[in-house]
Amino acid sequence: MSTRQAFGRIETDVLAAMGRPGLLFRAALAICALCFAGGLGLWLHQMIAGMGVAGIRHPVGWGVYITNFVFWVGIAHSGTLISAVLFLFRARFRSSFNRSAEAMTVIAVMTAGLYPLIHLGRSWLFYWLMPYPNQRLLWVNFRSPLVWDVFAISTYLIVSLVFFYVGLIPDLAALRRRFSGLRAGLYRLLSLGWLGTAAQWAHYNQLYLFLAALATPLVISVHSVVSWDFATSIVPGWHTTIFAPYFVAGAIFSGTAMVLTLSIPMRRILRLERHITVDHMESLAKILIFTSLIVTYAYIVEFAMAYYSGHLFETAHFRYRTFGDYRFMFYLMILGNTLLPLTLLWRRLRRHPGYLLAISLFIHVGMWCERFVIIVTALAREYDPYSWGTYSPSAVEIGITIGSFGMFFTLFLIFTKLLPVLSVTELKERAESPADPALEGRPGGTAA
Amino acid sequence: MIQRWELDDRPAFLARLEALRAQGVSPERIRVRTPVPVHEAEALLRVRQSPLRYFTLAGACAGLLLGFAFPILTVRSWPLITGGKPLISVPAFIVVAFALTILLGALASFFGFLLLARLPSPARIREPEEHADAFVIEVSPEDAGGGTNGGDGARPPLAPNGGGHA
User: Fold this and answer.
1) Mean pLDDT across the stretch A386-397?
2) Is A2 part of any domain?
3) Smallest CA–CA separation between A379 and chain B, in Å?
4) Does the keyword Transcription apply (chain B) (predicted)?
5) How far apart are CA A335 and CA A342, in angstroms?
6) A-B interface: how many C-beta pairs under 8 angstroms?
7) Are residues A162 and B106, on separate chains, in Cβ contact within 8 Å?
8) pLDDT tens for each residue of B4-35
9) pLDDT value at position B137?
10) Which of A64, A132, A314, A369 has its CB 3.0 to 4.6 Å from that of A397, i.e. a possible disulfide?
């Protein structure tokens, strides 16, 4: 097969995935959209009725909303990891996942960004977070981690969006001729009149490299800043220096799991087995093992430091975490984040798409529980027994949580039909250059 | 008359390009369109290293300066001690400065790219050029003035033997 034919085949495959949606797709979209709409309705209810409809009250003022915020920011991390970090390391399996991971990042940051607004109660005053002077010309407190969050998250959203869009430009230029009508017009507009001259490619490659190099430290900084929301306080269980690397590893762990959750059904439903192979998924499974071990190490360090310091409140906190009211969440977290990923050390298991999908779902549960355990157990038992208390989420909070999953999957499903889910240009580059001995040359390098 | 080749793959494309250069066709007269980046062609066509890096540097430096100036100047405009920390708490301001460094660096790179690559091009949006995955080479006639290699018009005069025949 000539290079040109191979290119044509890649375009046809990716194009087929963007074709008319089937019944399964429509049903999935309808369910997700319904959840999303339900979540919006409950948010409206909370705005009208007041924050009393949520379960958060003294002493646990940060509940499911902040848990979800950290969860979704974490999910957003792997997009840039897979795109930028693996690009800098020249890991070629990235081209099977980078587009959907980047889309996942943008959508997850948007979902995460809603939670501080939901948590505000009076959401319409969200602009108070922005750095501008108030009526008395007093500016925001730049020493507050919550203001850092505003800067870090909005920077992350904008840079991720630029990175996502830049990757799309040559792809849309390749695909525009395959469509007609409104879509052709849209793709023509979005591809900006891309030609593919030598000079354009030279500028483009430089841009992509710089964006990757800028995005990499950004990934690490964003979740570090989120972790400092907790670590700069003096709450036992939060006040620790390990939080930043611990959160970053956890974020990459959960984000990689989400890439698997999305791409395993996607490759089956959209028939992309030829481009997203078992080898590629195995590479992601290895990232899961690696980050799972880092997270596990962080769990051990937290307990070891509490024990070694002999600090009364710190030890009491970790005893409460293990044996207290929320112990089942803690055990779920250990199961999902520490024990189950260890099974991926067996090659046969990490090459089984169904098993990887199941593991990735357990990891989501484990990571969600991790954030819940960190946030809620610490606030439930601070220093003074007089102000101890427990928290359980209300129906409104659970509904809004389900609504955010609905929003994420609705937007992702729309993305799979609107934009190419694989990077056409990078697949062409991969097809055209000499076979990658690490991946393509090995038996089993094709679809399972 | 413009001479035109549509080639199926990278080796054929590079061979044709090398042959043209060996015949003494100046790079200014050659314009190429490729579906994927071909780095070897850049050397053959004497495409200079992209000056995009200066945009990135300028944006990042501006972001860094702004990121420190913003908190420092605002905190000085209404000095209010919070949390017993000094007014100009440099470690706390690093986070804001870092985020703005990345943000302005990335945005300056993106807009610099649009400027350098001459995008968006309204004429091409209305009537895009399609080559259906071919590697295209076009050689314009000697007197046409050349310089049509897209996006990088300001090419220095070069090649002592620049006036060969295709």
Assistant:
1) 94
2) no
3) 21
4) no
5) 10
6) 205
7) yes
8) 899 988 899 999 999 999 998 888 899 999 99
9) 92
10) A64
Predicted local distance difference test score (pLDDT) of residue B146:
46
pLDDT of residue A435: 55
Report yes or no: A434 at the B interface, CB cutoff 8 Å: no
Give the model's confidence band at B151: pLDDT under 50 very low, under 70 low, under 90 confident, else very high.
Answer: very low
How confident is the model over B139-150, as pLDDT tens digits?
Answer: 988 865 544 444
User: For A225, which residue in chain B has the nearest alpha carbon?
Assistant: B95
**Predicted pLDDT of residue B148:** 46
What average pLDDT does range A180-190 have in this prediction? 90
- Rg (alpha carbons) of chain A, rounded to whole number: 23
Chain A residue whose CA is closest to B91: A143
**Distance in Å, alpha carbon of A425 to nearest chain B alpha carbon:** 6
pLDDT value of residue B155: 41
Residue B57 contacts by C-beta under 8 Å, 6 or more apart in sequence? B105
ipTM, interface predicted TM-score of the complex: 0.91
Q: Does residue A94 register a pLDDT over 90?
A: no
Q: Domain for residue A140, yes or no?
A: no
The answer to whether residue A149 sits within a structural domain is no
Whether residue A155 and residue B89 make contact (CB cut-off 8 A), yes or no, is no
A216 CA to chain B: closest CA distance, Å?
10
Instruction: Give the count of domains, chain A.
Output: 1
Structure tokens at B73: 């100047």
Range of the domain at A115: 22-131+215-413
Contact partners, residue B87, CB within 8 Å, separation at least 6:
B75, B76, B79, B81
For residue A117, CA distances in Å to A126, A173, A202, A231 come to: 6, 38, 42, 22
The answer for residues whose C-beta is within 8 angstroms of residue A319's C-beta and 6 or more apart is none
Which of B 58-87 lie inside 8 A of A, CB atoms?
A: 60, 70-71, 74-75, 77-78, 80, 82-83, 85
CA distance A128 to chain B (A): 16
